[in-house]
Amino acid sequence: MDRRQVLVGAAKAAVLGAAVDAALAEPAGGAAGKSQSATGPDSSQLADLMVIQNLLAGSAWSADVGETAFQTNLYAEDAVMDLGGERGAVRGRAAVVGMIVNDGHKSARADGMTHVAAQPFIRISGDKAVAVGYIQIIVTDPASPERSLAGSPAAHPLITVRMTANRWEFARREGRWQITRRTIRAAPSPEALALLRDD
């Protein structure tokens, strides 16, 4: 079983369990139009929460392995990726997905680039959701001497070359959650904090 099958299987199991809990806790139709409270999601939103969490976990993974099929399902056809500054915005699913297979990205992957995502904070309101969180980009530092830790093989240390604040906007269309807009800002910075605070 490959990693993609594991991810899909875990998502199905989580969604099934949460859906059962929601069905037991909510009368039919009771969740329509509900917004997430300040104390967190109610039982009727847990299935959606798990789906979105798994999609975001898969976003980092698929970027590292160049899994375009996952990214194609992740982003809506009219998705926008706002990179900020001179890089501007990338518009449309094809252009967004194309970013993980361009020459620059392939070269970075060959150098050992790894995306490490922090647990996102997710707010759900009906058929829309917003998630915010940090992503670190980590690579091996060949300039540093190799070190061994607790008997592990000696290796060069890892360094964080970039950290970003991210805001993902989701919409549920035809029963499926997809990203309609992703905004990225370098962190730490005032722009990153403003992005995380934006409602």
Radius of gyration: 19 Å
Named CATH architecture: Roll
Portion of residues in beta strands equals: 25-35%
- Counting structural domains, the number is 1
Query: What are the secondary-structure elements, in order, as H or E?
Result: HHHEEHHEEEEEH
Question: How many DSSP helices?
Answer: 6
- CATH topology, by name, is Nuclear Transport Factor 2, Chain: A
What composes the largest sheet?
7 strands, mixed
- Inertia-based shape: globular
Q: What is the averaged pLDDT score? A: 83
Give me the secondary-structure category: alpha+beta
What is the terminal separation in angstroms?
Answer: 40 Å
Give helix % range.
Answer: 25-40%
Organism: Sphingomonas natans
Domain SnoaL-like: 46-183
Protein name: Nuclear transport factor 2 family protein
Structure summarized in a few sentences:
InterPro entries: NTF2-like_dom_sf (IPR032710), SnoaL-like (IPR037401). Helix content is 36%, strand content 32%. The protein is an alpha+beta fold and 199 residues long.
